[in-house]
Amino acid sequence: MLKILGKASSINVRKVLWACAELHLPFEREDWGTGFRPADTPEFLSLNPNGLVPVIKDGDFVLWESNSIIRYLASRYGGQALYPADPVVRAPIDQWMDWQATDLNRSWSYAFLGLVRKSPAHVDANQIAESLGNWGRHMRILNSRLETTGAFVAGEQFSLADIPVGLSVNRWFSTPFEHPHFPAVSNYFERLGERPGFAAYCRNGTP
Q1: Considering the entire predicted model, what is its pTM?
Q2: What superkingdom heads the lineage (predicted)?
Q3: At the fourth CATH level, which superfamily is domain 2-76?
């Protein structure tokens, strides 16, 4: 059986859990990371030298990096509806997944760590404000995209890209500050609520 190493509160672990729900894929999960078994031990570093969760063990196959993991799972376990083989259809899915992992994540990092995680290293008010401004600019990009598709981030159909993007949208709404109004983003987030795994792994009280 597929084994997932990582604590369930981690946004990157939750990508994998939600993908498993969409794929109806059974798994076992072990708690690793802050507050649980440390990820900087030789045992864990032999699986992921970066010392980060999640890691999966699928038989003898080991893989880390959350977006790579969910691509692998969809490709191996009948997830063509989520991640089609056609490169023209697949490319926008990869595009928005990569955008979430790079541009969007970088924009909210400082503000989230300061306002939600209460990190002592992220208390500078000017840097929080700058981060919130950058975050809002990226959410405006997402809002414009969703206005165009009228549905999901890569097009009319739910795809693998909506898992990481949806989790980031949950983080947006869960962070305490005055949010700009993005109607298409709000409608999108409610639309995601119809998906299996959403309540358990996205809008579950964990930012």
Answers
A1: 0.96
A2: Bacteria
A3: Glutaredoxin (3.40.30.10)
